[in-house]
């Protein structure tokens, strides 16, 4: 199946529950009719006789198959076969003997599937309203010994979210075990509430079953999916890259259908996925990948990093617009006044070019200053000055927090923002730089605001948990979200404004308390359905100048801007969010003489005022994560 | 204060909120009137002026006291002073400046208290209905740097459990930080619901404030406590060994009271605590101490261990009674029949003596067999045979699971039970031994049942968490409970019966599946109040013979029997239990060829059917804890 797992193609399998005596023939027919693999029982249902075993029966000592008990007997087809585990197995039976025999038979079947080297086994369908707790225990233990063969839990999606609730319990019991995936069977009618669909993007959906019965006939009698099904399947394909599985009906239910029609339609949907936009293309390969946030004050960016960030088509356009409008507002047309603009943290000079273009367009006279602390980038600035800018730009090699200017400037331009706005210490840097600014000087950006929202993502939780230490659970990451479900629109935590009038004129701040922040935001996720939370998503919105803004906040995201992925704050324990409850997030920005850090915490309160979950405060005293000053 | 912390005496302090100019005098008077220490403000309330500071004020750069701002100026009295932190500090103010200044002032005050070497500082009282989240963050961080000085959070107990709920949130936010204690102030009216009192036994109550206003006058006009207050205070003294703190009223509210009366009464209560019973005496020093359960099959008990267990006054009395009744039932008075009794796991022989005494008392003829696998204990058996038993007892050196007998016996007597009944593998041992037994033979014990209940205990949770690894969270411990709150009466999980008729006659079992168990028990903790759960308590009840039973189950505990402490199953994350919700515990007893282990899990479900908490299954596949076969 390796060919299909890269996300370039789409594997479509054919599912049967019949126990074929001649499985080779069935597999051959399936492949001949264009399917990439089959999903079939491994063991004949007649083997269910073993459920009757009692203590003392020798089968219990060493379960063994007769050849005739097996549908799959040889490893020959193993790379084209997903094995369905026997539906008659009752791991949660209240009858001790049946439960014990079921466990033996289940283990026997999985062991045989692993022996054959099948790429996956699929559990019997979870049945909402019945217990799956012993099944969770058995599978949780079994997967520790499975390497090649995957374990997929079969979930039939429903309108009432009951299947998700049961899977949620199963996932909780098995502690988000990354070796356990979901095969999601779609129902004829999808839930109306989009959140019930979105919830699955946060789950480890490895495969999707689209039974032939849920196809409708198009005017020509061919099977197609409803618009709503199409849309959901396409989103699943794009975000989860699942294996797809269809069935072929035993009687003709779509007039013109052949055994190939169902897989052809799925393949057709996949071929016609909308092309990736610029941001998606840029992010390709980075989805759900945890990056430690930059430490641009302590570390110097390398050339590659500058190169990447300079490619953003939107960011510099907006900066140019901001400078342009600031110049128009500040200086009358035709004036001889030379506006002094300083770019602090000029890097390799993209903002300098923005300013020059803005000045040309605005027809205003300007003198540019470019300040940079990175000696390597400074060489590039020197090249640009020698080759392009000449006298229009003065270069200054210095740390903006320490440099003493001999002249004051009109407009201070910087691009020091991180995914969470202030997380790369823009406030502290600009506090130091604002003493270069005239009393009526302008800072671009003028302000920026951090946002946060609760989110679900089994994937991201597992990525963090895989490190098995506290430090990684208390570190925010820059992540391009993909297999996630935002549980509520994000809310503003705090804002920084520049210049900061609290700081005495012409002085460096003597402490950093004015950049401390504490904010509490509350969310009602759903009045109707239970959900689960795995972490917190963070964004920023910045006002560059008046109406000129940039944003990575989902509701206002600057189209096409790719310089910033969102930020992800993990939580150490997933929190259940019962319907109607309130999620409260507390966020702090704290600093001491050497560093700045965040602490965060979350609580869930029921609609009756009981705390149902209280997270410990994360990153106490910056013990796990901080940004150096 | 070291004198009082051992639990032998009881320190009583005098609390004042007045800011005395001459603190030396106040301390001297307090001590002269029989108090052991004082609790006093450290800083004058006039220092609250710093709340008005703004950015740029130099105080913010380096907070410093004027000498006149301080109540406590010298370290001289430090070992007799608990410092009350300023009540005017508003760590959770919504005003940024007030909150930031409060944090600076709070840290300054704690730092000064640490500098003086005070034995503790006491926070301003938590105010239910207001936020304590920022206070939690500040304290959580501060205590990491405190070594000598303790941090006590002042909680005023109330009728409505609101104070507990707030403390519960505080404790959750600070992750049961063992450096943070509670000083519990008693109200004039204690809650009617005993559970609201009991809840505090699970909390780290380090001190108890008994304000003079809640004393009532006895007929002679002296201050005394109500019966209900007395009872609660005594329980607190016995279980928590808290420091006690009283106040002295400024006006005479109890006609005959002197400034000494309040402390005298508290000292009087402490002197008159009921004497410890035999079990308490035996357990003394072991309370809340986590012991790894025995592995008697893999390891041999040492002589000390035998010695300790043989001292139990009740256990052997009940065994003797069981054998006596079995003999009476089995053999007619005057018969010449010689009943063969075998003690398996005879150790140093106490059960052999029981059987001989029972036979003498019943006037029945017996032949005793004593089987033991521990070569060291076997020497003691040989001594006893040589010196006392002679021909009445035959010794067998063997493992009961493997020995092949040449004669069958009437009564099989064993004492293989652990705190959870089957946790020392009594079922597996007796399965092997029952082939010695005649068809109508009797096993003593005849059956045993394991019990479990949800419990709260910040102390036990912390003891486990201190190991900072998964293994300790997935290991059950034998513990004498003290600082705990049982959240509901325990429920039966499963029973083992002997002889086990499922095993084919005269054979060894070929597998151990008949000793696998799975059980689910559900509890409603409280319909009225929220609680929290930190772990699971486990017990057993055993039927030795018919009506002769032994039990460590709280409701049926055999009086005076001390051989078994309860068992404690930790959980990895404390679970909030909102009022009206249902706690479900799932327990498994699992085995493979070499070992037996338990797995356990818990869920909380709201009265609306939402899961509010789902614990991962603990000890998957016996990865952390098992008992070797």
From TrEMBL, chains A, B:
Domain PRMT5 oligomerisation residues, every copy: 447-627
Domain PRMT5 TIM barrel span(s) in chain numbering: 35-272
Feature type site, description Critical for specifying symmetric addition of methyl groups: 309
UniProt record, GO biological process: methylation; regulation of DNA-templated transcription
InterPro entries for this protein: Arg_MeTrfase (IPR025799), Arg_MeTrfase_PRMT5 (IPR007857), PRMT5 (IPR035075), PRMT5_C (IPR035248), PRMT5_TIM (IPR035247), SAM-dependent_MTases_sf (IPR029063)
Stored Pfam families: PRMT5, PRMT5_C, PRMT5_TIM
UniProt GO cellular component terms: cytosol; nucleus
Active-site residues annotated for this sequence: 415 (proton donor/acceptor), 424 (proton donor/acceptor)
The entry's keywords: Methyltransferase, S-adenosyl-L-methionine, Transferase
Residues making up the signal peptide according to the UniProt record: none
Residues where S-adenosyl-L-methionine binds: 306, 315-316, 372, 399-400
Gene Ontology MF, one: protein-arginine N-methyltransferase activity
Span of domain PRMT5 arginine-N-methyltransferase: 279-444
PANTHER family: PROTEIN ARGININE N-METHYLTRANSFERASE 5
Family: Belongs to the class I-like SAM-binding methyltransferase superfamily.
Protein name: Protein arginine N-methyltransferase
Species of origin: Lichtheimia ornata
Lineage: Eukaryota, Fungi, Fungi incertae sedis, Mucoromycota, Mucoromycotina
């Amino acid at each position: 199946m390796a060919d299909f797992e890269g996300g370039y193609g789409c594997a479509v399998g054919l599912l049967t529950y019949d126990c074929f005596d001649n499985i080779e023939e069935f597999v051959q027919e399936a492949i001949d009719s264009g399917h990439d693999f089959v999903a079939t029982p491994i063991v004949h249902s007649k083997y269910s006789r073993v459920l009757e075993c009692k203590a003392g029966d020798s089968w219990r000592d060493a379960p063994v198959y007769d050849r005739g008990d097996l549908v799959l007997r040889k490893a020959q087809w193993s790379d084209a076969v997903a094995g369905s585990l026997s539906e008659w197995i009752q791991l949660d039976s209240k009858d001790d003997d049946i439960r014990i025999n079921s466990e033996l038979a289940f283990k026997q079947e999985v062991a045989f599937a692993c022996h054959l080297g099948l790429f996956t086994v699929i559990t019997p369908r979870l049945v909402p309203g019945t217990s799956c707790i012993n099944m969770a225990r058995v599978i949780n233990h079994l997967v520790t010994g499975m390497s090649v063969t995957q374990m997929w839990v079969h979930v039939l999606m429903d309108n009432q979210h009951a299947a998700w609730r049961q899977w949620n319990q199963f996932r909780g019991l098995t502690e988000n075990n990354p070796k356990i995936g979901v095969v999601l069977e779609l129902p004829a009618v999808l839930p109306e509430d989009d959140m019930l669909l979105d919830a699955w993007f946060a789950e480890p959906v490895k495969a999707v079953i689209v039974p032939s019965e849920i196809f409708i006939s198009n005017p020509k009698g061919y099977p197609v999916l409803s618009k709503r099904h199409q849309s959901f399947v396409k989103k699943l394909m794009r975000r989860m890259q699942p294996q797809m599985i269809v069935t072929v009906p035993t009687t003709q239910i779509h007039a013109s259908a052949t055994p190939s029609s169902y897989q052809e339609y799925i393949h057709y949907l996949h071929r016609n996925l909308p092309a990736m936009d610029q941001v998606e293309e840029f992010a390709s390969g980075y989805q759900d990948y945890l990056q430690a946030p930059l430490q641009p004050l302590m570390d110097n960016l390398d050339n590659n990093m500058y190169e990447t960030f300079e490619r953003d088509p939107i960011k510099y356009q907006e900066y140019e617009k901001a400078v342009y409008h600031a110049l128009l507002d500040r200086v009358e047309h035709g004036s001889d006044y030379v506006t002094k603009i300083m770019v602090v943290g000029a890097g390799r000079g993209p903002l300098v070019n923005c300013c020059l273009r803005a000045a040309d367009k605005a027809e205003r006279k300007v003198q540019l200053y470019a300040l940079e602390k990175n000696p390597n980038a400074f060489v590039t600035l020197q090249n640009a000055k020698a080759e392009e800018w000449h006298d229009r730009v003065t270069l200054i090699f210095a740390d903006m927090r320490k440099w003493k200017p001999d002249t004051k400037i009109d407009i201070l331009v910087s691009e020091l923002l991180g995914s969470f706005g202030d997380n790369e210490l823009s406030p502290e840097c600009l506090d130091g730089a604002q003493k270069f600014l005239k009393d009526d000087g302008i800072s671009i950006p003028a302000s920026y605001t951090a946002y946060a929202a609760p989110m679900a993502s089994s994937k991201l939780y597992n990525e963090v948990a895989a490190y098995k230490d506290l430090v990684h659970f208390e570190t925010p990451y820059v992540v391009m979200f993909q297999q996630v479900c935002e549980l509520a629109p994000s809310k503003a935590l705090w804002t920084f404004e520049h210049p900061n009038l609290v700081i005495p004129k012409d002085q460096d701040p003597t402490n950093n308390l004015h950049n401390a922040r504490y904010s509490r935001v509350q969310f009602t996720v759903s009045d109707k359905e239970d959900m689960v939370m795995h972490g917190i998503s963070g964004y920023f919105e910045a006002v560059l100048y008046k109406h000129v803004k940039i944003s990575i906040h989902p509701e206002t995201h600057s189209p096409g801007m790719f310089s910033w992925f969102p930020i992800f704050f993990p939580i150490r324990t997933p929190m259940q969010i019962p319907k109607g409850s309130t999620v409260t997030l507390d966020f702090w920005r704290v600093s001491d003489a050497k560093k700045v850090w965040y602490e965060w915490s979350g609580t869930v309160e029921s609609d009756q005022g009981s705390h149902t979950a209280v997270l410990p405060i994360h990153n106490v005293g910056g013990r796990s994560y901080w940004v150096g000053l």
